Amino acid sequence: MTVRVGFVGAGGMNSAHMKNLSQIKDAQIVAIADLQEERARERAAEYKAKAFTSWSEMLDEVPMDAMYVAVPPFAHEGQEQAAAAKGIHLFVEKPVAVDLQTATDVNDAIKRAGVIATAGFQDRYQDIVAKLKGMLQEYKPGLIMGYWIGGMPGVGWWRVKDQSGGQAVEQTIHTFDMARNLFGEVAKVHCTYSTGLMADVENYSVEDATCVNLQFESGLCGTIFSGCFLKGYGKVGLDIWCPTMKIEYAGRSSLTVTEVGREPVTHKVQNEFLKDIDDTFIQAVAKQDQSLLKSSYADACRSLAIPLAANQSIETGQAVEPVRFAD
Asked: Please, what CATH class does the domain formed by 123-270+305-316 belong to?
């Protein structure tokens, strides 16, 4: 079966997905919509697809089996609901929304339509994750610390909290998602934050840094740090502390295991995990099998609920229980 695919958004992430799909024999890119007409036309010409500046016109005019949505967090305006209503399967880049109501509306539409849906949490597809999960079956952790600390992305909407949700929502959500993937659901969230280092940045309303304290349902505790004020260096990943072993997961790079009395051992990522998530999505659509995917849309909503609870904690100063999403 050839899976006909449309794209909403022709920026960096969807361009990477297009490149991957062009190498998958069962996938055919049929249409690309982007508000920037020149960009839409360039991508469409590259893949012999039709170009649009309106996603709704694209859906009306071009038959497709699946659709990728990669737009800024605030720009989810019914694309997913309209596609689901037509029976079109969905790949939605993270974060899937900037607020719970939008995520809930899309999740409900997906459930009503019964379409296959996933989100762009490609880190779950790294080959080292299976090795890490195996270790955690043998060694019980007592504390975790997670990170997405670096510089500020250059796009204007990113630094406006109402549009991006802040760094915890837009970037560190990868770390929150991996923590959920490894350690289960989060029962409670409390967040502290700092500001003031980015006073020279125009139209800036996100926090410079956040510390999100997590209490997992399992009893495990940890903190996940975000920071966008660094210049030229940073850290992404998770440090996992067990009684006789420390595991350092360096996001998208490697896994380093240090056991008491032994030299550290490093396992590097060997697979093309972004390509693997695209290949798996096309397979899932072709076979009509959601179970092939490592994250459903509802699961992505559960990961989104954690940094959104952190934002609520910033406003109230209180611990917050993340909203639950059912499959």
From this structure: alpha beta
What pLDDT does 94 receive?
98
What are the residue ranges of CATH 3.40.50.720 in the chain?
3-121+274-292
- How far, in whole angstroms, is CA 293 from its chain's centroid? 14
Location of each CATH 3.30.360.10 domain in the chain: 123-270+305-316
Q: What is the pTM (predicted TM-score) of this model? A: 0.97
**Residue 126 Cα to chain centre, angstroms:** 14
Question: SS3 letters for the chain?
Answer: CCEEEEEECCCHHHHHHHHHHCCCCCEEEEEEECCCHHHHHHHHHHHCCEEECCHHHHHHHCCCCEEEECCCHHHCCCHHHHHHHCCCEEEECCCCCCCHHHHHHHHHHHHHHCCCEEECCHHHHCHHHHHHHHHHHHCCCCEEEEEEECCCCCCHHHHCHHHHCCHHHHCCHHHHHHHHHHHCCEEEEEEEEECCCCCCCCCCCCCCEEEEEEEECCCCEEEEEEECCCCCCCEEEEEEEECCEEEEEECCCEEEEEECCCCCEEEECCCCHHHHHHHHHHHHHHHCCHHHCCCCHHHHHHHHHHHHHHHHHHHHCCCECCCCCCC
Q: For residue 55, which of 117, 8, 97, 90 has the smallest C-alpha distance?
A: 8
Give residue 327's pLDDT.
80
Mean pLDDT calculated for residue range 218-229: 98
CA atoms of 267 and 126, how far apart (whole Å): 11
Report whether 213 contacts 183 (CB < 8 A).
no
- Fold adopted by 3-121+274-292: Rossmann fold (3.40.50)
Distance (Å, whole) CA 34 – CA 71: 9
**Residue 290 near residue 116 (C-beta atoms within 8 A):** yes
